[in-house]
Structures are given as C-alpha cells and as structure tokens.
Amino acid sequence: MSEAQTNVKVHVDKVNKSYGSNHVLRDISLDIKQNEVVVMIGPSGSGKSTFLRMLNQLETPDNGTIVVDGYDLSDKKTDINKVRENIGMVFQNFNLFNNYTVLENIMLAPVELGKMDKDKAEKKARELLETVGLAEKADVSVNSLSGGQKQRIAIARALAMEPDIMLFDEPTSALDPEMVGDVLDVMKDLADSGMTMIIVTHEMGFAKQVADRVVFFESGKIQESGEPEQVFAAPKNARLKEFLGKVMHA
Amino acid sequence: MQKLNNIYPKESIFCYTKCTMKKIWIILTTLAIAVVATMSVTTVDAAKPNYIITTDATYPPFDFQDSSNQYTGIDQEILKTIAKREGFTYTLKPMSFNAATQSVTSGQADGIIAGMSITDERKAVFDFGTPYYKSGIAWAVKKGSNIKSLNDLKGKTVALKTGTAGADYALSIQKKYGFKVTYFNDSDTLYNDVINDNTQATFGDLPVLQYSIKNGTKLKVMNADSPYESGWYGFAVKKGQNKQLLTSFNKGYASIKKDGTYDKIIKKYLGAPASDFTGKKSDNTSLLGILKANDSAFMRGLWQTLLLTILGIVLASVWGIILGIMGVSQNSVVRGISTTLIYIFRGLPLMVLAFFIYIGLPGVIGAKIPAFTAGLITLILNEGAYTGAFVRGGFEAVDKGQMEAARSLGFTYNRSMRKVIMPQGLKIMVPSFINQFIITLKDTSILSAIGILELTQTGTLIVSRNSQGFRVWAIVAVIYLVVITLLTLLSNWVEKRTRA
After folding, report:
1. What range(s) does the ABC transporter domain occupy (chain A) (predicted)?
2. I want to staple B454 with a disulfide (CB 3.0 to 4.6 A). Which of A213, B269, B305, B441 is the partner?
C-alpha cells in the first residue's frame, strides 16, 4: 500500500487505561492513515486488545485523545453509535446473533439502522456471502456453522454496514488450525481492496504478508513499530526480540 | 427454519417484529382493561340499600352450605328473613372467621353474622345488634378418650379455632391446666385433628359442637350442662358505622321473635337431622356421589381458579417482563426500583400480601377492594416479582459478546436489548415461565383465605357440611392435577415451538 493517502483515519494521543492498580495502557500515541493495514502483536495481557476496543469505545480510556474519522470520541457531543456505523469489528468469539439466520445476521444492522431497505440489504448480504465463499449458507442457523464459517460470516456482517475501518480482535485465535487459512484469505482480499484495517493477531506469517505496519505492544506500551520487513528481520527492541524468538520458533 | 427473504421470524411465539410485538401488547392491554372494567362494574339496586355481609360458612348449624351449595343455617335464615322484612339486600361473603371479623373492621364488609359471641373486647371495635342466641363455651375430646377432666390436659395439645371466644377462654385457663395449643381456620379440619388424635381436645361454642356431634362427628362434649362464660351471639357492624343496617336488623329481629318465626328457625335446624340440609347419605359418602351432588359448586370453584390463574399468569408475566427489562436498564434509578419491587414482593408471603391488600389497604385508602381484585393484584405483585427476577437473570445470562457485537455495529443499548438480547433471553426463560405458571395455579388456593370462592374454598365449604375430608380433598386434588397436567402439556407445546 505504498500509494496510501496521507489522510489520517485514526489519531490516538497519550491514552491511558487502568483496571484498578493494573495499568494496561500507558501513554499510547498512534496515527493510522487511510488504506493502511496495521497489525498489532505482542504477548497476551500487553494491552493490544484493550487498545483496539478503545477505537470504537467498547472500552473507554481514562484520559488522552482518540479521533476516528474526524470524530473526537471523548467529546460528549459525539454520537458514538453513528461513529460505530463506520467501524466494523470482528471478534475472537465471532459473536454472531444466535437468534437470527446467517442472512438475517448480515442484513440486521443495515435495515435496522436505516442504511438500506430490505431488498437492497439482502442483495448486499448475498454478495458478501459470495465474497466470503458461503453463499449456500444464507438460510441456516448460525449454530450449525463451523468456527471458520462463523468468522467469515462475522466479517460479512461487519462489511454490510460499508465501514471505512475494520477492527479485528484476534480473529483466528478461536479457530481450529485448518480453518485459519480461509479466514485469513478473506482478510487478505479485504486488505488488497484498500480497506483500512487494524488487526490484533498472533499470525506472524499473515502479518509479514499483509501488514503495512507492525506495532509491538508490551506492558501497555508500544515498544517498537515499523514495516514488517524491518520489525521481523531486524528488531531493535530487546523485548520484541525475545517475543519473536518465542513465537517464530514455536 | 425460517423462510427465505424473511429477516423476521413471524412463526415464533416470541416474535421480534415491531408489528407482532405491538399486536401482543394490544391484546394484553385490552384483556387487562376488560378485566378491570368487569370487576369494577357491580350491579347495585339503587332503590334498596345493598350490604356486604360476611360469615364463616364452616359453622353448622349457624352457617354452612346445604346440599345444593346454598348458604344456610340459623344465622343465614334469620338474616334472610330480616332482610326481606326490612327491605334491604345483601351480598354474602363467606371466609374464615378471623378474616371475616377483620374484613368488617377494615370496612371491606358492612356486617358479620357468624355465631359470634358478644364479648367486652369485641364491643370495643364492633357495635352488636340485639343478642339472638344464648351460647356458652364447651370443651370436647375424642369419643372414647381417657381424658376425664381439664386436669388430664396437662402436657396435651388443644385445637382452637383462630379468633373465637372458645380460643380466648382456652388461653385464659392454659397456664392453670398446662396444655399446649394449636390453631385452625375452619371447624372441620379442627375436629378431624382431634379425632385423629393429633390434638387431644378442643374448646368451642356448645351448640356448634353438639350439632356436629349429633351429625356424626366422633367427639364428646365434657361440660354440656355447665358451659363456661355463657353468653350471647350477636350480629355486628364496625363500631360507629352502618347504624341503619343495625337498626334494620334489630327491628326485624324483634318482629321474627314476636311472631314465632325465630323459634321455627331454631327448631328447624336443631330438631331436624343434618341430612335434611346436607343431602342423602349416598351423596356424601362416595366419591361419585360427592362429585355429582356438588358438580355445579366444583365447576364454579374451578372456573374461579382458572380465571385467577389465567389472568394472574398473563398480567404477572407482563408485569414481570416490565420489571425484568427495568432490571437491566442503563439507568441506575430504574434498576433500583426494579430490584426493590422484586425484593419486597418476592419476600412477602402470598397470604400476608393478600391480607394486606384485602384487609389492610381499604382502611387506609377508604375504598372497598373486591376480593377477586385484591386476589388478582396479590398474584400480579407476587408472581410478577418472581417472574421479574428470572427475566432479569435470563437477559443477563445472554453472552456478553452478543451485546458488544450489536453495539459495535452502531446499535443503541436499547435497540441491542430489543433486537438481540431479549429474544435470546426470553428463549432461555421459557422453562422458568412454565414453572411459574404452575406455581401461580397452585398459589391461587392461598387466596381462599380472603374468601374467594375458588376450588380450595369450595372444598372447605363442602367438607364442613359432609365431613368427608378424605374424599372431598381427593376430588379437589385430582381436579388440580388435571388442570396442571393440561397447563404443562400446553406449555411444553409452546416450548417446543419456540425451540424450532
């Protein structure tokens, strides 16, 4: 994505977050440009998921500034629900709506939130199902799907709102190994299409291949960030070296 | 499986579309309004005063039900005759003696005639009419018992009827003779308790005991010739109230005394065998006979039970769901209200709540509350609190990720609740609802305490007449089981459909 525009989609400045005495994020600052694919790596408990969830306010920072799509999230006048319509999110545990079929899961938000009428939403949903390779599953109950299928449906559900930004919170961590590839393929296609993506993952191969930038979190801080070649081939930070030593040769 | 092209499953009972949800609400609201309207409309003959008179219909020969389930007895015939002569009408509300006296003092009823002894204590809260029957307190033991005198009662247990003069007398000599006491609300259960030797003696009004013994109750009166504290029965109204009713009663009483009607009534009940009133032996000693002889009474009782159950289930579910929704509100005040209401009404025993609403509340708000309404409100508050608790629990049991996913798409909290959390929560709750429906049906029996003539109260009245406790309660139990079975089958069917 060398032709990425300089347009800043996400601006984070000096954000802190604590749970009681546990200081999970310390003075985090980060800018993400349009069309950029940022992959966040780091040991569990390093704060990367909390950081991701702050970008759509599933978690609120104790202080600091977060501006998404030009909306200041700490501003009380900002309608967070409107902002969220433009930020898709994919969860580790899929979180498909159990009370709806696959097609209904994808159509629900655009129809409910008045973005599309039912016909248009359904057309869109079927296209998305085609894209994620699950067109034949439109009318089944979500509980009959495998993990990999669920996650691809979850991606389709998020995309149905036609967001500018997609957040992925360890999207393959709950999957059986043979399912991981299908989900990563969908994500890779999405990246190639120019979507702004912020991904928390342990899939280092995927990060190398797809990321414009890799950000290493440790102890609530960004210890190092840069292009994947540099981060993986020539890490400077001692903790990053140690972390890569563990995950790359596991 | 839902049809293609259809995001909203219309077939399911817990439909999620606005329109179907609205439809249910409209039906429920209409139903509720209809009920309230029917209950508040009571036809009153404007020309004649109409009084509510209460009694304890388990008190033969003074007050009981005859073989066609009509209220009869010395008291009832005196009252009926006087009302006719004095030109007033009345609605009779039978309940336990204790509840009957309280409903007069709380203003729910205008007068009471229930073989009620005139005592100084009662004079403090009631105005009595002309004393109409001389009575006294006797004590009785099981036939063949080896208890010969009050001294033999040491360490034994004495059965007493709550709130009666007999109970007061027994308590006054309890220390002296060293017996224990236990309480009952209706005479027949009490007699059976003594006959079954669970308790060893009872104290009660002499004529009542004698009448019961004459009609086959296996008890023996120990002081027939020298009743204690001999006194008089009186018709009573709340002190300082209903002067016109009391005047009418006294005038009518003087008139029936003068022309001999009074004596005829006494003779009719004390002279004749009880079977004259309680029906043929065959109607009272076989299951089929009892069922046939009382079929219309059982049907009426069953209908009241069903009415209470159905209205109770529907309205308590609506109220419970409201409480449950309030319980998961983002507003802490609304949540607090829900928690408090659930805490209070789940904590109160159903009977206490029923008495509070029926007997306690009217005195404060100064308006009568019909027993059925009071009973229904009791059910709604109590069962609704239980429902509210499991509804809230059901919503909270839905995986947190469902809410996060909905919020991440841009849904507000309320929309997420309505579209995603509640439909799933309600599905989780179906078994709890079914359980609560069955509990509601059973709980309606407790409302017999405030005189609602449902199935249990119907059984009480029939037993007090024919003394066939085993058979009558067996019939009542079977009716309850049949209804509960039908309710369970219906619920299972509904449950299956929501699972599909």
Report:
1. 10-244
2. B305
* Min distance B432 CA to chain A CA atoms (Å): 19
Could you give the CA distance from residue A1 to residue B178 in angstroms, rounded to a whole number? 100
| Nearest-by-CA chain A residue for B498 | A99
> What phi and psi values does residue A15 have, to the nearest 5 degrees?
-90, 135
Q: Are B354 and B96 in contact (CB under 8 A)?
A: no
ipTM value for the complex: 0.92
Number of domains in chain A: 1
CB-based contact, A120 to chain B, within 8 Å: no
Q: Do B408 and A56 touch (CB under 8 A)?
A: yes
Chain B residue with Cα closest to A82: B410
Residues B407, A157: C-beta atoms closer than 8 Å:
no
Confidence of residue B35 (pLDDT cuts 50, 70, 90): low
- CB–CB contact B410 A109 (8 Å): yes
- Find the domain containing A213 and state its range: 3-96+164-248
CA distance B427 to chain A (A): 9
Minimal CA–CA distance to A170: which of A201, A192, A204, A134? A201
Residue type, B115: G
DSSP E strands, A20-150: 22-33, 37-41, 63-68, 71-72, 87-90
Nearest-CB residue to A95 (from B405, B411, B419) = B405
Q: Is A107 within 8 Å of B7 when comparing Cβ atoms? A: yes
Which tokens is B94 given?
Answer: 């039978």
Residue-wise pLDDT tens digits, B155-203 = 999 999 988 889 999 999 999 999 999 998 888 889 989 999 999 999 9
**What is the three-class DSSP state of A219?**
coil
Q: Chain B: give the shortest CA distance to residue A93, in Å.
A: 8
- Residue A102 forms part of a structural domain: no
Residue A5 pLDDT exceeds 70: no
In a domain? residue A184? yes
pTM beyond 0.80: no
Let me know if residue A227 belongs to a domain.
yes
Contacts of A107 in chain B (CB under 8 A): 7
Dist CA A37 CA A195 (whole Å): 8
Is the CB of B408 less than 8 angstroms away from the CB of A112? no
Distances (CA, A) of B314 to A146, B213, B436: 40, 46, 11
pLDDT at residue B39 in the model: 54
DSSP letters along B380-433, please?
HHHHHHHHHHHHHHHHHHS-HHHHHHHHHTT--HHHHIIIIIHHHHHHHHHHHH
Domain presence at residue A81: yes
Nearest to B268 by CA among B42, B51, B408, B60: B60
DSSP string of B137-205? Answer: EEEEEETT----SGGGGTT-EEEEETT-HHHHHHHHHHHHHT-EEEEESSHHHHHHHHHTTSS-EEEEE
- Note whether A89 contacts B423, CB cutoff 8 Å: no
Distance CA B408, CA A86 (A): 10
Q: In this model, does residue B356 exceed pLDDT 50? A: yes
Instruction: Pull the structure tokens for residue B1.
Output: 């499986």
- Here the CATH number for the domain that contains residue A226 is 3.40.50.300
Residue in B334, B323, B445 with CA at minimum distance from that of residue B387: B323
**Tell me: the pLDDT tens digits for A160-213?**
999 999 999 999 999 998 989 999 999 999 999 999 999 999 999 999 999 999
Residue A121's nearest CA partner among A136, A133, A111, A131 is A111
Which helix (H) or strand (E) is B65 found in, with range?
strand B64-65
Q: Contact B450/B99 with Cβ under 8 angstroms?
A: yes
Q: Which residues of B touch A154 (CB under 8 A)?
A: 405
For A:47-86, CB contacts with B below 8 A are 56, 58, 81-85
